[in-house]
Amino acid sequence: MSQGFNELPSLNALKVFEAVTRHLNFRLAAEELGVTQGAVAQQIRGLESSLGLKLFDRLPRTLALTGAGAGYAVSIRQAFELIDEATRTLRPEPNRLTLSVTPTFASRWMLPRLPGFTAAWPDIDLRVLASERLVQFHHEGVDLAVRYGRPPFGAGLDATLLFSQTVLAVVSPALLAELGNPADSDNCLRYALLHDGHHLWPAFLAFNFPQVSLHHQHHLRFNQTALALEAAISGQGIALTSPHFVQNDLASGRLVPAFPQQMTMDAGWYLVWPRRPREQAPVMAVRDWLLAQVSS
């Protein structure tokens, strides 16, 4: 005679528990689940009461899993992953794929190529998620990401190089004609330096002027490379970027190189994806398509 699951705790309480184990914070778990912080705390208290043991230690600014709670968390997460996998197998969805990229990569590299992607893969429903922060692949439904840096990017993740980072300085031709060649150190001081979140100007100036210590006075600071590039196009100064992000601007003459040399960085733009992707075929198809775009 088969045995039922009469001793199981509330599945809703277990779902709340799993969210809290990731955030170790009732408020953040509540925001993810769309409920109140009090409701999360009540579910955890009820679960601990039904199990007859503590799952979390309440610390002044955070929570910590007890030994029993940590072991339980691993098993519960595996159980939910099994349920999720069984449900998706039963109810297959169309080929949806979420690609997480930085805002600059999205606007400067991805958007011009989207018509080509749609033509090559009309059956893949692509969602582009522009974000600077690192994503949690499984919990945020992200299948593939493009990130700047150096591997490894995390446990259980595979990565392949999309393109290495070289740094090019660009300026509008009108500003170049007005202020003169910035490769001359005196002229360089006349330009505003347009900064982004990568903070590469000190290294770039040292690379181009190894014998001179420039005390530059004119700075404009942005949190994204795309904004610095827009400022450069409008003649506000010199911006630093990957050549891959300004191919169209250089071809059209909206921007020109400000210095003849490019600086090579020990980092690059990488494709990153879970070792066990949710949708193997679409992820590999999009990965190969992105790599082909770079090589072409």
From TrEMBL:
The keyword Transcription regulation applies. Keywords: DNA-binding, Transcription, Transcription regulation. This is LysR substrate-binding domain-containing protein. It comes from the Bacteria. The keyword Ribosomal protein does not apply. Belongs to the LysR transcriptional regulatory family. Residues 9-66 form the HTH lysR-type domain. It comes from Pantoea trifolii. Transmembrane segments: none annotated. SUPFAM superfamilies: Periplasmic binding protein-like II, Winged helix' DNA-binding domain. PANTHER family: HTH-TYPE TRANSCRIPTIONAL REGULATOR, HTH-TYPE TRANSCRIPTIONAL REGULATOR TRPI.
